[in-house]
């Protein structure tokens, strides 16, 4: 690999990363039944704000045809607003020596394939972990969307069913579940077999249980250490978590002298937006370009939907060791 090839290397690396990530996103969206949606839509600035009309069902009333006329209370047509927040991430620097490639008779195409594949998987994992952390925080901050049995029991189908019941007659709108590997295998141990695999990439697995996809990933937010240790299972509605990814991956490759051998380093910056259905990122409390801790703070996600049935979903919390 000649040093003059570095500019070409950099260009191909960006293209290969974007293509690899795009292919994974397309497969993931279909496999997860749309509960977690990774989009190619980007937005300017720190926040993406979407307005939608508030439900008007409360305007329905009973009428007595024989009663005297009286004034009917009006219901204002109003809009609610969901806020998504932009999150920034980085990758690298990754260092290697151009001489290493020529020494083992490898070309730059192989290096591009290795780096771009790892970079795409790292970005996708960051997007999923961040979205899951935000959803767990937002949903578990609402008592009407949380079934916490951790004081007496672990996660079970009965506990998950009770969480679904919090959606009442809209429970059929819950289209997928998100859980960690330990919880998944406990449920498999409860005589659930023959679960077809729908998707797998890095540390994410999607299987089909009881007709609904189950996203199996050891996202940090799905486990909480304490007394007791807690497992958390998200049951999500369609587009419960939305990741807005503009594929704005910026890579830079530099080759430098000064060491006993020539060294090359690669570094990448990227960003994406996180939105939770029925919730708005609190721009005052949560701020701009949030940390992982800020994303995982329930108070930073304000409930804006008028009914919990119109939100991202529910959460089941159980004793991880039960």
Describe this structure in words.
Helices cover 26% and strands 32% of the residues. It contains 6 helices and 16 strands. The chain is elongated, with a radius of gyration of 24 Å. The model is unreliable at 1-6 (pLDDT under 50).
Short description:
With 322 residues, the chain is of the alpha+beta class. It has one domain (3-53, 88-319).
Helical segment tally?
6
From N to C, what is the helix and strand string? HEEEHHEHEHEEEEEEEEEHEE
Number of domains: 1
Distance between the termini: 56 Å
Biggest sheet descriptor: 8 strands, mixed
Can you tell me the overall shape?
A: elongated
SS strand fraction: 25-35%
Which percent bin holds the helix content?
Answer: 25-40%
CA radius of gyration: 24 Å
Give start-end ranges of low-pLDDT stretches. 1-6
Beta-strand segment tally: 16
Instruction: Kindly report the average pLDDT value.
Output: 79
Oligomer class = single chain
Coarse structural class: alpha+beta
Task: List the topology elements.
Layout: H1 6-31, E1 36-39, E2 47-53, E3 79-96, H2 98-103, H3 108-140, E4 146-148, H4 157-164, E5 174-179, H5 181-188, E6 197-201, E7 204-209, E8 212-217, E9 223-224, E10 230-237, E11 241-244, E12 250-256, E13 263-276, E14 279-281, H6 292-295, E15 301-303, E16 313-319
Parallel strand pairs: 1-11, 4-16, 5-8
Antiparallel strand pairs: 2-3, 3-13, 5-10, 6-7, 7-8, 9-10, 10-16, 11-13, 12-13, 14-15
């Amino acid at each position: 690999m000649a040093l003059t090839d570095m500019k070409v290397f950099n260009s191909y690396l960006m293209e290969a990363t974007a293509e690899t990530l795009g292919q994974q996103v397309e497969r993931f969206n279909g496999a997860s039944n749309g509960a977690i949606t990774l989009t190619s839509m980007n937005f300017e600035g720190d926040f993406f704000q979407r307005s939608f009309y508030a439900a008007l069902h409360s305007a329905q009333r009973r009428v007595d045809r024989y009663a005297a006329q009286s004034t009917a209370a009006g219901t204002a047509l109003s809009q609610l607003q969901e806020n998504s927040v932009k999150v920034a991430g980085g990758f690298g620097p990754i260092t290697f020596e151009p001489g290493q490639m020529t020494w083992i008779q490898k070309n730059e195409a192989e290096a591009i394939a290795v780096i771009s594949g790892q970079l795409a998987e790292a970005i996708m994992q960051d997007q999923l972990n961040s979205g899951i952390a935000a959803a767990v925080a937002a949903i578990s901050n609402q008592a009407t969307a949380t079934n916490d049995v951790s004081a007496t029991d672990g996660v079970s189908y009965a506990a998950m069913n009770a969480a679904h019941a919090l959606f009442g007659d809209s429970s059929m709108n819950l289209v997928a579940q998100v859980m960690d590997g330990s919880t998944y295998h406990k449920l498999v141990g409860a005589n659930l077999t023959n679960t077809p695999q729908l998707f797998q990439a890095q540390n994410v697995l999607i299987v089909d249980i009881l007709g609904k996809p189950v996203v199996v990933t050891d996202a940090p937010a799905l486990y909480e250490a304490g007394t007791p240790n807690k497992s958390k299972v998200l049951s999500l509605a369609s587009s419960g978590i939305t990741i807005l990814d503009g594929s704005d991956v910026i890579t830079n490759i530099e080759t430098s002298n000064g060491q006993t051998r020539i060294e090359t380093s690669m570094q990448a910056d990227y960003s994406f937006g996180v939105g939770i259905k029925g919730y708005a990122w609190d721009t005052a409390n949560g701020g701009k370009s949030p940390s992982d801790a800020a994303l995982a703070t329930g108070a930073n996600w304000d409930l804006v939907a008028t009914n919990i049935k119109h939100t991202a979903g529910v959460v089941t919390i159980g004793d991880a060791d039960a």
